[in-house]
Amino acid sequence: MSTSPQRSIHDLGTLRIPETKRQRGGLGRRLALFFGLLVIVGGALGAIYGLRGRSAEVEVASARLETGAAGREALLNASGYVTPQRRATIAAKITGRVTGVFFDEGTHVHPGQLLATLDDSDARKALDTAVADRDSANAAIADYEVQLKNALLLLHRAEELQKAGVQSQEQLDNARTSADSLRAKIALAKAQVRAAAARITEAQQAVDNCTIRAPYDGIVVSKDAQVGEMVSPISAGGGFTRTGIATVVDMASNEIEVDVNEAYISRVKAGQPVTAVLDAYPDWEIPARVRTIIPSADRQKATVKVRISFVKLDPRILPDMGIKVTFLGDERPAQNSGRAAILVPQGAVRDESGKKVVMVVKGDKAERRAVTLGGTRGGDAEIVAGLVAGDQVIVRAPEGLRDGQGVEVKK
Fold first, then answer.
1. Rounded Cα gap, residues 275 and 285, in angstroms
2. CA-CA distance, 224 to 242, in Å (whole number)?
3. Is 2.40.50.100 the CATH number for 87-119+210-249?
4. The whole model's pTM is what?
5. What does the mean pLDDT of the chain come to?
C-alpha cells in the first residue's frame, strides 16, 4: 500500500513532452505557414499578370486624309439620316378586297402605272344600273318626240278648222294642251338622262377607285398588301384590314436631315457647303449644300432641324441610311507646309506630361505614337506629324492601356 502514490507520480511524468520535441513542432508550423503564404502571393501575382496580359477591347477610327474639305474650315459636325422629300404610302380611296398586285419591292414605277386592283363587282353593278336608266330615259324621249310630232299636226289642223269656223274652241284647246304636255314630258325625260349620266360618272369613279396607280416616278420600297386582304383608307377591322398598298419613294428627292444643337445653329446658313459621309461608305465623302433651316426648335432636344441637298445623287444613297455631315466655313489660305491634313477624332488624342500622343492598333497590339497637332476641324483634330492616312487610332482608350499591350477591336 505504501508504493501506490509513487507509481502514480511516475505515470504522470511519462505524459510530459520533452523540450526538444516541443521546439521541433513549432518550427514545422511556422514553415507550413510560410509556404502557405508563398502559394497565396504567387496565385495573386499570377492573376494580376494574367489580367495585365489579357487583350483590351477598344474602339478605333481611321486617320483620314482631308480631301473634300481642303481649303475650308470645318465649323460643325452633326449626324442624321437620308430622307426623301417625296415618300408616299399608296392607299385605296375605298374599302375593298385586293384582287391583284402587280409590283414587288424594288420595282421602278411610273406615273399612272397600275399597282393593284380591288374587287369592283358591286361598283360595276351600280354602273350598269345607271347606264340602263340613261338608256331608258333616252328611249322615252324618242317616243315622246314621235307623239309630239303628231300632236303638232293635230294642233295645226285644229287651228285651221277653228279659223274656218267648223271646229269648236274646246277642241283647239285640247290639241294645244296635248302638245304642251308632250313637250313637258320630253323635258322631264331629258332631265332624267342628265341625272342618269351623273350617276354613271359617279359609278364609273367607284369602278376607277378599285384600281390603285402610282402617283409619280419612283421605287417601291414596301409591299404592304397581298391578294385576298381587305384594305381601307381608315383603320378598321383591327389587324385584319390594311390601310396601305405600297410605299413609293422618289429617289431623285433624297436629301439629308440632321438635328443641330441650337447653341451652334448660328454657324449654319442656307447654301453653306457640306461634306457628308455615309455610315455604310465611311471612305466616300459626298459634297452637299444646306437647303433650308426649319424655322422651329425642338424644346425637348434643344435642336433645330436642317435639311441638306446632295450636289449629285448616286444610286448608293438610300433612304434612312445613317450619315454624318461636316458644315464647312469660308475658303482658308493654303497652309505653309502645303500638305493635306490628317484628321482623327479629338477623343483619340491623349496628353502625357504635356506631350500629345495617340494609340494606334498595329496587328493585335497597341502602339504609342507621339504626334504634332495643328488646328481642329469640328470634332476632329488635325495631325501635322506622326500619323499617315489609314492608321487605325484608338478613339477611347481604356484606363491603363500600355504600349505593346494586346488589343481587340470592338465590332
1. 6
2. 8
3. yes
4. 0.55
5. 81
CB 175: neighbour CB atoms within 10 A? 22
pLDDT for position 51: 45
Among residues 235, 307, 233, 315, the alpha carbon closest in space to that of 276 is found at: 307
**The pLDDT of residue 61 is above 90:** no
CATH number at 56-66+339-409: 2.40.420.20
Q: 72-85+251-331 falls under which CATH superfamily?
A: Efflux pump adaptor protein, beta barrel domain (2.40.30.170)
- DSSP, collapsed to helix, strand or coil, labels residue 199 as helix
Q: What angle do CA 92, 93, 95 make, to 5 degrees?
A: 75
Cell numbers that stand for 209 in this block: 377607285
More confident residue, 293 or 387: 293
Number of neighbours of residue 290 by Cβ within 10 angstroms? 20
pLDDT for the residue 70: 47
Better-scored residue on pLDDT, 365 or 7: 365
Q: Report whether pLDDT(82) > 90.
A: yes
Q: Which residues of 371-404 are buried (b: 16+ CB within 10 A; e: fewer)?
A: beebeebbebbbbeebbeeebbbbbebeeeeeee
User: Which of 358, 383, 354, 382 lies closest to 369, judged by CA?
Assistant: 358
**Residues 64-87 as b or e (16 or more Cβ within 10 Å = b):** bebebbeebebbbbbebebbbeeb
User: Is 382 in a helix, a strand, or coil?
Assistant: strand
Residues 383/348, Cβ–Cβ less than 8 Å = no
d(Cα 243, Cα 223) in Å, to the nearest integer? 12
How many whole angstroms separate alpha carbon 378 and alpha carbon 346? 9
Query: Cα–Cα distance between 144 and 181 in angstroms, integer?
Result: 10
Rounded to 5°, angle at Cα 217 from 214 and 218: 90
